[in-house]
Amino acid sequence: MKILVVGSGGREHALGWRLSQDVGAPNATPYQLFFAPGNPGMAALGQCLDIEATNIFALSLFAEKEKIDLVVVGPEAPLAAGLADALQAKGIAVFGPVQAGAQVEASKAFAKTLMMEARVPTAAYQQFKNPLEAIEALDKFSLPYVIKEDGLAAGKGVTVTESKATAVAALKHAAAKGASVVVEDFLVGGEVSVLAMCDGTRAIPMLPARDYKRAYDCNQGPNTGGMGSIAPVPNLPCTFLKQVQEQVLAPMMRAFRARGIDYRGVLYAGLMVQDNGDINVVEFNARFGDPETQVVLPLLNENLASILLAAAQGDLSGWENTGFAWKTQHAVSVVIASEGYPDSPRKGDGMTFPSAISSDSLLFHAGTRLMPNQTVVTDGGRVLNAVGLGDTLEEACNKAYGVANSVAFNGAWYRRDIGAVETPMVV
Length: 427
Ligand code: AMP
Ligand code: GLY
Hints:
The protein is α+β, with helices and mostly antiparallel strands. It contains 13 helices and 24 strands.
């Protein structure tokens, strides 16, 4: 079986690594893996292609010529640009939604409209085609203001602020870009990411995960793509996933179908869970979360390729009643970032890696590059993901930080409090 993974980050490295573990002896890749474009971490698992993740034409051509059995799309940009549509048109199985489905992430306004139609709980909101009109309306919203730009913004299109001046600046910024905005009520609670595998009809949730989105310890500083993650999330009620299925996933799948959208791939629900157990959707993504994937997939006790292919082929019925099987362990991922992230990350720093890492630990490459002299240098804001597995959250944390401490590059930094349970929730 030939599998092409599209993307170049830690999420795609985790996907490739997990696929390489599917069957057979450890480290013996049972599938032929290709990555477009991949990174030095993935080069150890398969062939990295000189094709950018957004080059739909080249990706389709390669998949057709190479007779790829399954394309797994990591990032949102190619999905929003119609990669899945192009591959499906050529009869190639693809895990990732069609362009119309990817709008659930690409357009905050579309996501809100769908949630209203499907009666999915979410913050009350108002959409403004002209963001400048929102400036006058700001006083109608209570503090803090939540302003969301339409369009893909790599986690940076959302402003949550107590300051009217900052809110106005965000609205002017959106107006200058010609983007419409959604202004919505602030939600209180603990954030939980539920990623569900979808086959057009069914949505089967994976283990709940938590992403630490703010740059600095104690959730201070700017929002980032995510500075670390844990799975599963402690202290959730045992009925949590059933509630998410009934209130969020099933209605969304019905809403997609009602619009003629055959949604196959991951539907990622970013949820705010209140102390009383009520849930609200903060956002949807049309893909695996990063860095949630790095903690969810190592715990999966199933053949991953079978699930991805079944979803792509529209038939996850084999797991409909049982759900997916999971290890009883905990996983923690710590993102090692480069100097200047998230504003202006520095690239090109030489890196040193440990010669070996302990068992139950993993190191995924997220923003690295191989130089012509075969050395690896930093190549982005989020550089590496150090992952630990353990029987307890604490043990998993210790393992993850053990790995994080063993890599070095100039300016490397990471949060020290990944795994701290921020908001206790009712059990
Ligand atoms: P989003 O890109 O929509 O996930 O927003 C980024 C982050 O902003 C979320 O992970 C939350 O931490 C925060 N956020 C977004 N919307 C709200 C809201 N309505 N209330 C509180 N926090 C929010
Ligand atoms: N971890 C947040 C995201 O993938 O969007």
